[in-house]
Amino acid sequence: MCGIVGYVGRPKSLEVLLGGLRRLEYRGYDSAGVAIITEEGDLVTRKRAGKLAVLVDDLAAEALTDGSTGIGHTRWATHGGPTDGNAHPHLSRDGKLALIHNGIIENFAELKAELLADGYTFESETDTEVAAKLLGREYEAGGGLAAALGRVVVRLEGAFTLLALHRDEPLVVVGARRNSPLVIGLGEGENFLGSDVAAFVEHTQRAVAIGQDQIVTITPDTVTVTDFFGTEVQPTEFQVSWDASAAEKGGWSSFMAKEISEQPEAVANTLRTRIHDDHVVLPDLAGLEESLVGIDRIVIIACGTASYAGMLGKYALEKWARIPVEVQLSHEFRYSEPVLSPTTLVVSISQSGETMDTLMAVKYAIEAGAKTLSICNTQGATIARESDAVIYTHAGPEVAVASTKAFVAQIAALYLFGLHLAEVRGTLSPEATKEALDELSSIPEKLEQVLLTKERIQELAKWMSDSRAVLFLGRHVGYPVALEGALKLKELAYIHAEGFAAGELKHGPIALIEPGQPVFVVVPSPRDPNSLHAKVVSNIQEIRARGARILAIAEQGDASVLPFADEVIPIPLAGALFEPLLAVVPLQIFAMELATAKGLDVDQPRNLAKSVTVE
Ligand code: F6R
Predict the structure, then answer these.
(1) Which residue out of 96, 112, 371, 610 is catalytically annotated?
(2) Measured between alpha carbons, how far is 189 from 594 in angstroms, rounded to an integer?
């Protein structure tokens, strides 16, 4: 949601801002704009509703004077529709100051009333324009831009990242953040700001994450970070572990196709250096290691796809570490008055590390005295910084809005943690640990094999492109896979899709089955010791008897489903807990191919944002 770029350096702002906004497009947006201080000292802006290409075409038709200082924004509409007028930047009353914003200013109505009473008028419906006008008024009171920003942000409630520039301070961009992301990029004679490192990674891999309630001032040669009251703080620099090419499509038809294909590598990179001599080695847990022995309960919090990874984590942690685990959606968690104590470990899972619902849930857990661990894919992200410890997934940048490679990497990280906790608690024999680690280590190679089914699934998806509804069934670890398969299809192909626990079928959902209804079934291995396989095969027969078209995802060589399935997509042999890492891939490919067959944009589905930074 909302992409933010700031730049100070050489007279090439426009190129830097548009390049940065292009790399932030994946976050999801519906309008775009820039503000630049020209070499002559004028403040010029341009903003347009629609995709970045609309703004680029507009700039080609009528050039904007370039300069050495600029800010750029892609807006995901909250207050007011996606129009030119509501797009950012917004200006101060005297037109000398421009401001962009990500987040929601919850008390904007009250502040707007104050400004209206003071004779101010507004051109947009946004909360952002209120912040711009307020900042303009504070600037007039003196002390410079950073000090004025400090006086404004202490009055704002809600979540925000703000960037501003003023024509009277031509080589300065200031920024502030609360519960919303902002990262600094350090260059030579130039500095950058961005919602995430993608905004500037083509220029520099040296980055600094800005902490909660902090203000940053960048000039071509200096970076100053303070708290909201002007006291200087020393932020820590980090090196971005991927380069600009990792965030490029590199010949693939879509980022999603590329990211699905990168799953073997995403899992391998997440495991790399963390398995030694049949033990899990997680120096990442340094901040938590001593507390782990005393933990008596785990609550996993996450949203969407990440919550399905959490459900799989529950099966693994309970089996291996014999500890009670519950999984809650982050946005439900804190309103349920959860019972938390210093012996509760709250594990948050978030690809972006910026999901507002999950961030707020983590903060709630911290305030309640629980220990916190995050599983996160984005270095320096807010959730990671707030938690006692973080296990980074090393999936690389995930650009397509729908999560794929981050999901399998999250499962791998949770399994590593589960095996480590089992060792700490002495609940798993060395032989069983070794067997599980061998299974985990073999997943990248098996994922390569699953990817070979792509063409067959493509045919199936084309053939099914006019489906009105698709159902997904699974039991035990197959259930979160069914939920994920349904979510992928909904968000990419805009088809009604539901995932069910197969055992629940007879308790209601079987009424949906009518002749021709397509149903994907995640079939457990026939080697499963809990005889789940037989139960799922019975479920298949029940729905087939009512006319369902069965699309089974089953272990290679499982002949038992052949007589009842219209299509069988084989996956390699794996232990029960590890099957989901493989079974989910055909469902990801199916959703992507079906959306493609319908002519839809698989990287940026309608209404969705990659990083959901509002509650
Ligand atoms: C679905 C998807 C979302 C995210 C969810 C959480 O494909 O991507 O459901 O999983 O919005 O996002 P993160 O992991 O960034 O917290």
Answers:
(1) 610
(2) 48
